[in-house]
Amino acid sequence: MARYDIKTVDIRRAALPEGAIPPYGTNPLLIKCPKHQDDSESLAIYPDHIHCMGCPFRIQKRMDALAFLLKLPSWKEALAVAPKYKFLTETERQAAKQKEKPRRAPTMRDVEIYEGILSDICADRIEWFHSRGLSDETIRTARLGHNGAAFVIPVFDAKLNVVTLRYRNDEEICGRYEDEWEGDELVKAKKIPKYRGWTGCNEATLYPAWKFERDRSDYVVLVEGELDALLLWQHGVPAVTATNGAKKQGLVLDLLSAFFQRIGHLARRRPSLRRVVICGDRDEPGIVAARKLFERAKQEYAEVVWLQWPAELGKDISEVMQKGYTFEQIYEQYGFDEESTPSESSTGSAGHDAPTSSAEATDTKTDGNVSEQISPSPRRAYPGGLYSREYLPLAS
């Protein structure tokens, strides 16, 4: 066992809930004494000993006192866990105080501030949204912004109340790693999370709920990210995702179920879903996640289609559409109602035929020296044409 100075141990922390801050300096923590009928919190716990002001109870040695507070057999067992209860540094005290403070929820004013930053001092970063295929109109209506270090994605409920803010790290400004230093020595490079949420308001939410509730299609596309969802809506395709849903494949289905339960009593409600389209990333983790989501969705919905385009077309739906493919073409050619394999035909098994003749598949997009074969627009309708129905508009 490594040696350490027991004088650095503050036994008051053992009498507090984890994360709580002990009194400042060496001031005692007062609690009720278990050795007598105590109505006034007369047991004083100092950093290094215990002293009761209402009875003769005393423990003068630090490790004996720690063993008493932790209900351990002796000071030897206390010694083994003592490093956990070291004095807090001033920095640690301040950080703990910040955690204890109630966190306010984001407001529309926060959204407006970040919108202003994006349109003003970070106007050059709008190009990043454009590179994801998002139009100025989509950027405006989704109220996207920037805080100087990250792109900001506001999350609204169905009534356009602000629920939370999502932050997407701007790697051009902040990079992917944050260096941690001790003096002049680089200790380690910590990876910056790609996505973060507003502290204290980071629960999973259906996105974009305000668009989905007003939609009248009886199908929806499930995607991995908020920006992918916005891109599909931009092209007239209803799509949703679960915010803060990384590594929780079934979460978006849970949120959909909760959504329909919430509106179940409304007379003029959004129609239920008949078809779900799984549209995950096509890297290995994305395929594994999509497979789990696909298997569960088949147990809950009448029809489930999994989009399984070749990885070389792009990692996600945004990359594929940036190459000139429309969602209709992707759905027609790569929509399957079972998991495909590389040896299978490129014709989707969701009831749609991909063009087979060379004449039918000769639309060619040339970009520099790169030539890509783009399927022509399908002759058969994609989900919106298959199952969409007309409904009265929402009540105002």
Automatic annotation (TrEMBL):
The lineage of its organism: Bacteria, Bacillati, Chloroflexota, Ktedonobacteria, Ktedonobacterales. Residues 355-376 have a biased composition (Polar residues). One of its GO terms (biological process) is DNA replication, synthesis of primer. Transmembrane segments: none annotated. This is Toprim domain-containing protein. Residues 337-396 are annotated as: Disordered. SUPFAM superfamilies: DNA primase core (SSF56731). Pfam families: Toprim_2. One of its GO terms (cellular component) is cytoplasm.
